[in-house]
Amino acid sequence: MKRESYSQGMASLMGDLDVRRAVHARMLRFARDRQDTLVIDELGLDHGACRIDIAVINGHIRGLEIKAEADTLSRLPNQIAAYGNVVDKASLIVAERHLMAASAMLPDWWGIVLVSRHKNGQVALKRLREERVNRATDAVTLARLLWRPEVVQVLRELGHSERTLRAPREELYGVLALSLTRRELGRRVREALKARESWRDRPRPQ
Fold first, then answer.
1. What is the pLDDT of residue 199?
2. Residue 48: which domain range?
3. Residue 28 pLDDT > 80, yes or no?
4. Does residue 26 lie in a domain region?
5. pTM
6. I want to staple 38 with a disulfide (CB 3.0 to 4.6 A). Which of 24, 57, 111, 182 is the partner?
């Protein structure tokens, strides 16, 4: 009997998909319609070691991490570190049951959005803390967002030799990180991500 009640309780918990749909429909409604902005679900970081739940890429890289009622916080410390190497701004979209524990883990530059469900079933989002700019991104990790052909193209435009361009991918990331200022590297990475036409065909949550 207790097991059945527990299962029913878990089934009623608000999950990732519920929250994700609400974020796309309300928080990102205008961003999704802008030609200069890419909104992408599950953006891999550091060759897939971690993923941004929802990335918003325009004049900066913004990461949104979802911790719904049905989630745990076991991976959050590693996710915070991974986001910190790459994104310019970040927000945690968090259910009330995780709010206190998650807030204690977050750097002060992260924003916080509380997610809850009204009695009518509608998901509500309330901003509790504004985002601030992350000043500690890592150049090599940022460069790893690029595919090898994209890195080669940038390095070729910068005048690097064809011999250099044949180096292993990881070496190319290091060369690129040393070849550009952090600001220019960020701009080049964002441009490359937004230019990936294959991403335009990914389905968006309804």
1. 58
2. 2-131
3. yes
4. yes
5. 0.87
6. 57
